[in-house]
Amino acid sequence: MFRGTWGLGVAAAALVMSGAAAMAADIGPMDAEPPMAAPVANYDWFLHVGPAGVFFSESADVSAGGAAVAGSDAKIDNDLAVTLDIGYYVTPDISLSLTLANAPLAVVNGAGSLSGLGALGKLNYLPPVLAVQYHFPEFYHVRPYIGAGVNYTMFFNEKDAALTNFKVDNAFGAVLQAGVDVMLSEQLGLFVDVKHVWLSTDATGVLGATPVKADVTLDPTIVTAGLTYRF
């Protein structure tokens, strides 16, 4: 399971961004305009679509029957999702975006003193993100951006495992974002995007006849790469 995934995600994105920038430099100017004069203002909308790795930095404080369980923890399998960003340029440099995805299946496993229980439960989740971005000036078809926003993760289709009546509460989280677009033509390009979400929730269930509650920190880092289209 990944730890410190925010740094890992940024490092991976930096490697891809440097390779993409080199590729864009080989493309050369798309017209007679200077490289800094990119006609971004001509395009009001953009789409980002591609696969995303979801890497959790999880932890849990578990109580059973109202008493804390010493050494208890939880682990969640990392996931692969497909995401779609729909963005609108409010100004040539500032955009709003909504990130949508399919609903991956997460497996919650006992850890620490609960490791012998194996899977505690399974569930699907939807993690839409609403964010605002600032896009730096385009240089040789490369345009980095940073952003911030809010996430609302919805958990559903819970399945019992070691715990019965397994439930997880929906939750809000704060988001920071960084990425880059590398344009291959005026409208089509590539992108790399890294989002980190500060997300905590409550999970409940029953172990045997004992009610169990967990305060769970998820804090996923989402690393996405794919195609950019602006129109």
UniProtKB/TrEMBL annotation:
This is Outer membrane protein W. Pfam families: OmpW. The gene is ompW. Residues 1-24 form the signal peptide. InterPro entries: OMP/PagP_B-barrel (IPR011250), OMPW (IPR005618). It comes from the Bacteria. Belongs to the OmpW/AlkL family. One of its GO terms (cellular component) is outer membrane. Keywords: Signal. GO terms for biological process: transmembrane transport.
